[in-house]
Specification:
Blueprint (H helix, E strand, L loop, with lengths): L2 H9 L3 E3 L1 H9 L4 H9 L2 E6 L7 E7 L5 E9 L4 E8 L6 E2 L3 E2 L3
Parallel strand pairs: 1-5
Antiparallel strand pairs: 2-3, 3-4, 4-5, 6-7
Length: 104
């Protein structure tokens, strides 16, 4: 899996948004358009190749207005569907430059 697979699925509208992701987006006042934009212009900062049922990854991105968003996506290669697992505005106390987890 790479970010290109996820972007192609988004552009083809082959996406599934979990209930958990919907809840988290509402709580952080994020729209689907903001999430998709940040993903399509973002980068993978952590990969989880052994996740089941599909490999997943954490993507760092920004909205059109520069707000930072982290989103976790899985990709089902067999059906070419991208699955938004969760999304959030990262806590600056937990991240260095929004891309590296702080230790401790």
């Amino acid at each position: 899996m790479n970010i290109t697979d996820i972007i192609q699925a988004i552009n083809a509208n082959y996406i599934n948004v979990t209930q958990h992701a919907r809840k988290e987006a509402r709580e952080d006042e994020l729209t689907l358009d903001e999430i998709l934009f940040s993903t399509c212009h973002g980068e993978i900062i952590e990969a989880y190749p052994t996740d089941t049922p599909y490999p997943s990854c954490l993507i760092y991105g920004q909205t059109e207005t520069g707000d930072i968003i982290h989103s976790v996506w899985a990709y089902a290669a067999d059906s070419q569907i991208a699955i938004l697992i969760t999304v959030y505005r990262p806590d600056p106390d937990r991240w260095k430059n929004w891309k590296v987890r702080k230790s401790g």
